Amino acid sequence: MSSFEFKDSSVRMPDNAEEFIGKLLYRLRNGEEVLKIPKREDGDRILKGMFYHLEPEMFIQISGYTDFTCPKDSFRLMPGEVCIIPAKVGHHEEARPFRGFPFYNLVVMIRGVHTMMHIANSAKGRPHTFKYISYETAINTGRLKTYIEDLCELTDDTDEGVKSELAVSLMQAILNLLLVIMRKKEKVSDVGKVSECRTLIAGSLGNPTLNVKKLAAKMKCSPDYLSHRFHHETGTKITEYINSQRTEMAKGLLESSDLSVKEIAWACGYSDPGYFTRVFTQRAEISPREYRKRSA
After folding, report:
1. Cα–Cα distance for residue pair 78/105, rounded to 1 Å
2. What is the number of domains present in the chain?
3. Which residue, 66, 69, 75, 128, is CA-closest to 97?
4. What is this structure's pTM?
5. Which of 76, 140, 178, 185 is the most exposed place for a label (fewest CB within 10 A)?
6. 258-270 pLDDT, tens per residue?
């Protein structure tokens, strides 16, 4: 897969996503090794600054490279390679240019019944979303999640790991299913600013720098306009919506992970665990520790 040099105005979704996936399928059919999956450890653990999700994520490197750091592994993703981060594996990403080409990657995220994809470039070494699309497709999203989880388990259980014939076949099935999702055009029908804002928030909850100003910049509108539009259509302020979504994410982590409250705060985008506890207690009317005890 050759590198691409884009300007923001030349990136198109889903056109470019289909192009990248097609090139990756070509490499797989030709026997090239393209897949990387970090090693997993017993028990849940993250460090401050890492992202952590209850669903797997996939990264396809277009140009530049990404340095991934996980609790038990670290590696570099080069152009034409794909990385799958299993569910409940903390990860940190550093985005860098390579051989004169800027950083771009395609990220696939599973969020409930939505398959979300975005192309990211970088600012100061951190990837950030600027072209995105979301598909509401419960059956195919569930199937995609199952395929990815099966691939992660397979690479854990076999000596060949990502190089095994079955792993390659599963990777091809995952990529082909993504093409099916895109070509069926099961795109969310609401493409207004509020829907776009929700999509961006869903993919950025773990980012502690998420705020109205940055959302507005990505959506090419003013913060005041976005805030007014969001509040008018939903009756909720954007900051309140972000906190409500982070609280729901925290509930899921308290119920299904062994992360400490401090680690859950980091995973949900709070740099200060004390502030996270106050926000959670105010919204859930119970402290994170008490919520975990009741959910056990």
Report:
1. 10
2. 2
3. 66
4. 0.88
5. 185
6. 999 999 999 999 9
